[in-house]
Design brief:
Three copies of one chain form a homotrimer. With 315 residues, chain A is of the alpha/beta class. In chain A, 38% of the residues lie in helices and 14% in strands. Chain A is globular. Chains A, B, C: Heterododecamer (2C3:3R2) of six catalytic PyrB chains organized as two trimers (C3), and six regulatory PyrI chains organized as three dimers (R2).
């Protein structure tokens, strides 16, 4: 994407939302991520870009998977990582998010990675600190590194993103993953279909760049190049959005029969952790179309790239 | 404070209580802390004084804030830090504190930072181990690094400690902070007034070096150079010490009207986490008199100094 | 044990069970462990054999003690350690152990240390990953590094293992320690007696290499060179295996009277944490026959040796 006479510069202080990024930003992050991924595959450690830096992992929601991914990424770059999983009990102590932000800021970290249950909570915090802030998931709003790693996994396995037909299926309404990934894929020229039960399909998804929404999965999967199944977030649902797990699987589960409707070289994705037998058949999760573990691998690489671009700026 | 012909040497194995320190000890720690604070402000890492050393953070009480401060301090000096937050569930396993001490000692750490709910628990443990022990809070007894960081914050912002009028207000009875800070400030020549509800004012505070105690906050704040508000430790109180939060705020909350009675350049402190609207008005916490985030910053610096002086000895 | 013309090579990918090791393997690990133990005693750090490597500590059961021992061992060798204590709440999210394994593997660690409540769970996981897997306890099955550290402690204090009479007393049925330690000691030529209440003595212990089982502790301790008391695992027992703690102590507690029946230079061991007054008298735990803290010390050394032999292979 380099344009003669134009010199690109990644110029963001924080990573709060895919909405803040341009197509060039995303491609720059993906290119850098690929370098990190190749280094890891070759058994090489990258340069210690974050040597003598401190990264704080502030997680108000439990997520061993995402927290570890950030921790491993930061350490590979030579950073000190301070894990701060905040149990419900501590929150009960009654300190506000702003006070937590100001307290952490006073400890002079170079980056804070934060997951919070309130949509917008991470942005709020970012205004009160001097260091780089990376959104690791805020409520049902954004999870930008997930959007980036999904896009990278697709680009690597399909060779491009432009023009691909991508179907995302599941609880779209509560999914920060669907939002972030749709935004990123749309920016890079994919055609995204969002599919789920009518009760779990929000309106306004055209603002994310979605081409269409549907509650007919058989229809949505027709000819798709990429199928991304979302986790059925049972803990997110307060009311009775769904009749039964069995009913859900019948209508929205990814089975081999259904997969046959997609393109013959379609790939299958899932952000994990999976509910096998609920949203995806085990044979598909473990089959040769699945790139699910590659998503995890790219997750570490993307976080290395983002940490380098943001925390590394302070040097 | 260097006296011709006299060569000072910091000569302590542990940091258990401010009571064990002389004025020269405190001034030595504060001087060293300032060097660390300046290094951090300038974006410099200090020498790795604790390289190849292991610091264990043994916290029997939940305190993300203090634990992180010690962790960041130890890592800045190059130490390995092993976090050991001991959940209630583990304590139920029934191992005695002495056995825990002996077990940890057998793993050959260079320093153990410990917080325990029993007053005196840290001292007990220190007798059973070979390495340096730092008290990060034991029951209602001591929290010496808090006393040091409070003193340092005052010395930096007011230019001196000697002769200052300091008012500490809140739940004095249950506060290890009040005790440690009063002792440190008194040693350095400040005049400390302790203020709180009659039910939360212990007797014998003259042994801490307090000049007086009172339950009249309006009176106590008159002409004060420093006002330190304590957190209302609701979880500490077993009985009915207080009528209501509203009543408490009316009598002992720091409001703008009350602050006007203090010296015109008085500073406001709080060890955190704050209960905004209960012991302190939000506008003051965020106002230009507040040095609350500077306390957090000095906290890391003081812990660097203490770790260097104690753990560094084993080299 | 070097045989002319024979060149020994430690050739294992994982450490899952003592059953997978030969006598030469064990002696090789113990020899290397001794070197690490001596280095620590001399205040020396070993070579950073695991520099730029990542060790994941995946603990599905709470064990501050074992987790810290592995963490300290790995850090001494220069590794990055990512702690993953998996709370019950996370497991409820419903991811299978296999998915967890594949997720972690995709993050490219060099070793995974795992404790899991299911016997065989660690082996299952090891089949799905590329890196070294170390069993830190799986159900009632194996805890191989405990077997090795027990054997090393005996070899150091008694000068040999061959021909020693070792009595292990307690809840043999639920003890992965008893199984691993018996296997290791038998391989090295000790004669192991297993003792406990009839309800807690499994059949088939001859397959572990035990010489005999008995529910008469007075008889079992007669002339023993080593007495190892097991922790009464109250949380392990679902039913009514035992009449009362008092009754247990009378029949199976280690008292000074009972210890007098053992060899005059007998040593006393316990894997910890101890229930003082239930399985062992306090005076013995703290007495000069006790090598309990030395077990902890050797634990770190053995884990350094095992991590070096396994994770170090990838270089």
């Amino acid at each position: 994407m380099s344009i003669p006479g134009y010199s690109y510069k990644f110029d963001h202080k924080h990573l709060l939302s895919i909405e803040d990024l341009s197509r060039l930003d995303i491609e720059h992050i993906l290119d850098l991520s690929e370098e990190f991924a190749e280094a890891t595959r070759a058994g090489r450690r990258p340069e210690p870009h974050l040597k003598d830096m401190t990264v704080i992992n502030l997680f108000f929601e439990n997520s061993t998977r995402t927290m570890s991914s950030f921790e491993i990424a930061a350490r590979r770059l030579g950073a000190d990582v301070v894990a701060m999983p905040i149990a419900q009990s501590s929150v009960k102590k009654g300190e506000t998010l702003i006070d937590t932000a100001m307290t952490l800021n006073a400890m002079s970290p170079d980056a804070i990675v934060i997951r919070h249950s309130a949509s917008g909570g991470v942005k709020l915090l970012s205004r009160k600190v001097d260091c780089a802030v990376i959104n690791a998931g805020d409520g049902t709003h954004q999870h930008p590194t997930q959007g980036l790693l999904d896009t990278l996994t697709i680009r690597r396995t399909k060779g491009r993103v432009e023009g691909l037909k991508v179907t995302i299926c599941g609880d779209i309404l509560h999914s920060r993953v669907a939002r972030s990934t749709t935004l990123a894929l749309h920016l890079l020229g994919a055609e995204v279909t969002l599919c789920g039960p009518a009760t779990l399909l929000p309106t306004g998804t055209e603002h994310w760049g979605a081409a269409r929404t549907t509650h007919n999965f058989d229809d949505a999967i027709e000819g798709a190049d990429v199928i991304m199944m979302l986790r059925l977030q049972m803990e997110r649902m307060n009311g009775a959005y769904l009749p039964s797990q069995r009913e859900y699987f019948r209508n929205f589960g990814l089975t081999r029969e259904r997969l046959a409707r997609a393109a013959s070289d379609a790939i299958v994705m899932h952000p994990g952790p999976m509910n096998r037998g609920i949203e995806i058949e085990s044979a598909i999760a473990d089959g040769d179309r699945s790139v699910i573990t590659q998503q995890v691998e790219m997750g570490v690489a993307v976080r290395e790239a983002v940490l380098k671009l943001l925390a590394g700026r302070r040097v």
